[in-house]
Amino acid sequence: MNLILISLAVLGVTGLVAAVLLYFVAQKFKVEEDPRIDEVQEALPGANCGGCGFAGCRAFAESCVKADSLDGLLCPVGGAPTMKTVGEILGMAVGNIDPKVAVVRCNGTCEARPKTSTYDGAKSCQILHNCYVGESACPFGCLGCGDCVAACEFDAIYMNPETGLPEVDDEKCTSCGKCVKACPRNIIELRKKGPKSRRMVVMCVNKDKGAVARKACTNACIGCSKCQKVCEFDAITIENNLAYIDYNKCRLCRKCEDACPTGAIHAVNFPPRKPKAEAPAAPKAAPANNATQPLNNTKQNGEEVKA
Amino acid sequence: MKATFRIGGVHPHDNKQYSVHQPITECPLPAKAIIPLVQHIGAPAQAVVEKGQKVKVGELIAKAGGFVSANIHAPFSGTITKIDTTIDAWGMKMPAIFMDVEGDEWLETIDRSKDIVRKLDYDPKAIIDKVQEAGIVGLGGACFPTHVKLLPPPGKTAEVLIVNGVECEPYLTCDHQLMLEHGEEIIIGIQLLMRALNIEKAIIGIEANKPDAIKHMTALASKVLGIEVKALKLKYPQGGEKQLIDACIRRQVPSGALPIEVGAVVDNVATIYAVYEAVQKNKPLISRVMTVTGKSLAKPGNYDVRFGTPLTEVVALAGGVPEDTGKVIGGGPMMGRAMSNIDMPSNKRVSGLLFLPEAESLRQEITNCVRCGKCIGACPMGLEPWLLSKQAWHSMWDEMEDHNIMDCIECGCCQFTCPSHLPLLDYVRMGKAKVGGIIRARQAANK
């Protein structure tokens, strides 16, 4: 009995001393932390993907709290709604945020881009890219080993076995940019998602002269500048035999799509074209609040149009 | 007991029977030639000719683009048609000079006779200048400009010249044949380099599977003071610079250092033959002997090909592409690279063309790493390929650098020996390229 009492007393006293000691130490070495950091972190998706450019959600929250304004700080995963919440917590205004989406700018399908050799090395685009031009003759196009698919943490990109090209699921894509970094050929670009997920894209990055590009792939952009001529909004630039559509200037009139002789320009997520009379119903009124858009494209996604 | 290097190594079947002892045949001149401007390690050469200009064989057509670079001379006489880009064997663009071949008119200064010139009393500087002027690069495969090796950095001195007659790469026989046919010239070339480096000792390393070459070279070397022929035990990659130094003089080059650190300069027999021709015959490097071989090839052999000749013409000479070909490799099967087309012009880099039948060219099914450690035992640089390949897979570049990835010589022993057929070298090589880029960026930033 005595033994138990003694042990209890010793332990109790030790515990008490330690508690008192810890209390004073905690007071002395207290780290002052802005409680808003926790609040902001709570509002973030918590994916720790690094798409914002910081080491994780906590680091992003810290820099949000420290920053004077939220310009240039964006959680691509959460997008506008998340940034709005963060802005409310911190009492700062959030600018207009256009949701973005990863776009694979290559349409060198199996038919358009015949195989010239067979690669049987390690299945990695990076390795293949270091080795040689790839299985087709196009030195710019998709290699098809799926480094982007492996890099995606949101399961938003997958290989289409028919075309041999990766495809992005607009709904799942958070535009974190990991696939952009993973692609050794810089084919993937983060582009404005566009109203109702509708957008115009030059699906080619081949900088070769027209004839060379065409020889390697019948769907290649040949830099003929026909699209540039029909564009009324100066959205298209031609550089190094390659057209590029500025997504901030593009008004989705679809004229360039019709003008393109090789079909390199794709109109994505547009409804199927009606008979000619009431043709391009270009949605001129860009919606004021893009944040609501991702919800809408559930319906749109099913009817993806490929030119 | 014959000497060999001490760490790692593998024993692939040498398969030299197809083209061994085939006399060196000159490849006929093509009608049109494309001469690449990048035929060496280092800066690309700068073209010094213009469209429409007429050139003779041996005329300078492109100047070295820096210290680590090499001159390029006209391998043919004719008219320059354009300076443009062409597609190499891997589908990538490279700058090149295009020319129409007209006749075979040589510069008068070049001695085209077959007589052997034995004059040796040159000034060392004059020999090095001649080597540099002639655009000589290491013909063993790496194509490192030779004059750079002959000028040791301050504070370092060369003690011994090691001549690489190993040809450890399976299938290739061009160096073997060169030693048999031009042994005497090679010995004179060695003497010239010994003079240029101011050293008294040279060792010719030859693997034991070439007994006739060993005998021939020993007989020739016995007449000259300081040159010794060393028969080496068969083991791949004995032709690697650092492995050969270890095999010949039992010295190990420290990690990240050059052979000059242990007082050695290594040159291939083909390079030395080019040195002989440059110094004694005034002939720049315009051709090389390459082996065209394969199990089903009609006429495998050793061909003397001028740079710029389309490889298709060389292949036609050897009997055309065999029907069962599954893979064409530029170089040997261990270090060579599979080619996606053979329209490329020949150049200083291509030491051989190997046609593998389809059945032999496919990779075997990949299974999981069984942690057997064979790759570690096979690595001649003492690295851990299984670990490096995993690190490359996970993009762990800093860790790869700590594990001395830059020491890898890309010999492929690890992948050759792997019982699970893992693509170890693919990943290691990719990691090496990445880490190399990071190191160069860091050095540039620190400057």
Measured by DSSP, the beta-strand proportion of chain B falls in 15-25%
N-to-C order of helices and strands of chain B: EEEEEEEEHHEHEHEHEHEEHEEEHHHHHH
What sort of overall outline of chain B do the alpha carbons produce when their principal axes are compared? Answer: globular
Strand order within the widest sheet of chain A? 1-4
CATH fold-level topology of the largest domain in chain B: Rossmann fold
- Residue share in β-strands of chain A: 5-15%
Spatial gap, N to C terminus of chain A: 89 Å
Verbal overview:
The complex is a heterodimer of chains A (307) and B (447). Chain A has helices spanning 2-28, 35-43, 57-66, 79-90, 125-131, 147-151, 178-182, 210-216, 226-230, 255-259, 293-301, and strands spanning 100-104, 157-160, 165-168, 188-192, 199-202, 236-239, 242-245, 265-268. Chain A has 307 residues and is α+β, with helices and mostly antiparallel strands. Chain A has 2 domains: 36-90, 3-methyladenine DNA Glycosylase II, Chain A, domain 3, CATH 1.10.15; 100-271 and 288-297, Alpha-Beta Plaits (2-Layer Sandwich). In chain A, helix 2 (35-43) crosses helix 3 and helix 2 (35-43) packs antiparallel against helix 4 (79-90). Chain B has 447 residues and is α/β, with parallel strands linked by helices. Chain B has 3 domains: 30-110 and 284-360, Ubiquitin-like (UB roll) (Roll); 112-281, Rossmann fold, CATH 3.40.50; 374-446, no CATH class. Chain B contains 13 helices and 17 strands. In chain B, a hairpin with a 5-residue loop joins strand 7 and strand 8 (93-101). Chain B is globular and about 65 Å long. The N and C termini of chain B lie far apart (50 Å). In chain B, 51% of the residues are buried. At the A-B interface, helix 5 of A face strand 16 and helix 13 of B.
